[in-house]
Amino acid sequence: ALAAPGAAASTPFTLCDAVRSADKGDVQEPLVLGRDGWIFRGTDLAPPYAVSDETVAALSRFSADLRSRGTTLAVLLLPPRGAVASDHVDVGDPLAASFDATQVRADYDAAVAALGRSGALVPNLLEAALADGSRDEYYFARDHHWRPEGARSAMRALATLATASGLSFTPSAWNNVGNSSRTYPGSFANRVERECGGARPPPEAFTVFESVPAGAPPGALLGDWPAPEVVLAGASHTNKGGDDQFNVAGWLREALGTDVLNVGVDAGGYRTGLMDWIDTEAARKQPPRLLAWEISGRVPQDMAEFSRQAIPALYGTCAVPLAQGSVDAAQGRVPALQVPPGTPSGGSYLVLDIAEPSVDQFNVAFELEGQPLDVYVLRRATRLPHSGRFFVEAPLSRAQLLAVNLVLGAGDTTGVEARLCSLPPDEVGVATLRNAP
């Protein structure tokens, strides 16, 4: 049996002005006291879930490139806490007076529908939570993460949609065993104690589950299990603590009846775990049948910018580059990489190998004939050591690419190997560009 949600707080507490005001503390947004000991962030109650055409286009291209490699992309857009736990929102509080659960739900539904137009599988996790009765146990009352119950609801919704789409996998049975419980202090409670003093909001209990194989896959020898055909990427919801505290991969294993590889990175945002996994030979040589991508919070507004790294990373470095250079950076500047005359910008991408792993940000400037300089800021999260390899696609344009300039941060001096590579001519964005009238 699952541990009691522990939403109700037996110890009374209040929220001081310091946490009820914006731009205070490390969360950078106000906290709002709800009913039954719940605490909400301002963004938990806010309605906007706009998905731009640019975001849909970028996701469509990424999804199509994955599909060409045999991988179906699924996007798991976590539902807003206020919409799931609307019964616990106190609209009598001035900070929550404008909250409209119906509108927030409608906006979430619209975001799911918009993302679904990309060709990715996008289950409606809010609809599932309202239908399966998990809404009161979906999220922690005093933390932004979902509970194991919420993760279970989401993974079942994903599995239902994946099965309906015709996906099938090498079968292997899994059981989820809950044999211990743990208390969770909650990020909001930590902030209240730190900034308000007085009574600390009490921790919440949850059951710790372990995902256990019920038997080896058919035909597998002892210890000879096939590589998982499902990959799960995301941040702390997917892999809290680096050990999947909420058993997300376990629930998906059980729901799909197959093994799952969890590559989520705690506190890595929506990018880090996915990018770290894409840039591996295993990902390129044995692409999974399903890639499930957890995105918490709002729909990223920089999806198009992110795709300029993710798409070339799918293809990796090239054996025969269009141009290459190996230099030692001095005083943060790298000599320009000269490009062969007549090289179109569209279909080209840069691969950079940086000798010093501590370098995690620098600018790449693409010089195109007759167009303004295109400056891209390359960043890698520092949550985990990165590979030192960076990818960035040149602007998707028919204009000639003249040169590529790199500028590192002030004081960074390191060796840089640069290769300019070509995307395959049938890559969806390149093909569309070349076939356009």
Entry keywords:
four-stranded antiparallel β-sheet; 29% helix; alpha+beta; 437 residues
Task: Give a structural overview.
The chain contains 14 helices and 16 strands. The chain is an alpha+beta fold and 437 residues long.
Question: Can you give me a brief rundown of this structure?
Answer:
The chain has 437 residues and is α+β, with helices and mostly antiparallel strands. Helices cover 29% and strands 23% of the residues.
* Sequence of secondary-structure elements: HEEHHEHHHHEHEEHHEHHEHEEEEEEEEH
- Principal-axis shape: globular
Helix content: 25-40%
Strand order in space, largest sheet: 3-8-6-7
Report mean pLDDT, rounded to a whole number. Answer: 88
Gap from first CA to last CA: 62 Å
Helices and strands: which structural class? alpha+beta
Integer-rounded radius of gyration: 24 Å
Number of strands: 16
**Helix segment count?**
14
Give the biggest sheet.
4 strands, parallel
The amount of beta strand, in percent, is: 15-25%
Poorly predicted ranges: none
